[in-house]
Amino acid sequence: MEYINKMPANDGPPIFGLHPNADLTFRLQESVAMINVLLDTMPKDSGGGGGMSREDTVKEKIEKELLPMLPVDFIWIDIQERLKNLRGPKGLGEAGRYDLIPLNIFLSQEI
């Protein structure tokens, strides 16, 4: 028990065959990611003005630029129903579960 208690809590990079700078790089990236999360979750100033949030700006951009580019007959519910009727190779996925058949997953992502 004494020997185990003397062991370090975290394994260093040399144990995995990495250069000691790998630990420095990892910790630096971890710190930057944590700071970015903190900045993203900070409350934004909300004045009485009519300014839009970042999410509203993105939604508006999608509505104005991307939605008009979709074909007129693009109805996602109909596409999901059609994908449910497609069958993959035998043994892959269940009937009616398009989300379990790899080719249907790929097709829905491409659509």
Short description:
The chain is built from five helices and no strands.
Strand count, sense and barrel status of the largest sheet are: none
Name the average pLDDT. Answer: 77
The quaternary state of the protein chains shown equals single chain
Which structural class is indicated by helix and strand composition? mainly alpha
Count of strand segments: 0
Which residues sit in consecutive blocks of at least 5 with pLDDT less than 50?
none
- CA radius of gyration is 25 Å
Termini separation? 58 Å
The helix count comes to 5
Order of helices and strands: HHHHH
Total domain units: 2
Strand content: under 5%
Shape: flat
- Proportion of residues in helical segments: 40-55%
Characterize the structure shown.
The protein is mostly helical and 111 residues long. It has 2 domains: 1-45, no CATH class; 70-111, no CATH class. It has helices at 2-6, 21-41, 54-66, 76-85, 102-110. The mean pLDDT is 77.
Write the SSE topology.
Elements (H helix, E strand, L loop, with lengths): L1 H5 L14 H21 L12 H13 L9 H10 L16 H9 L1
What descriptors fit this protein?
5 helices, 111 residues, 2 domains, mainly alpha, 52% helix
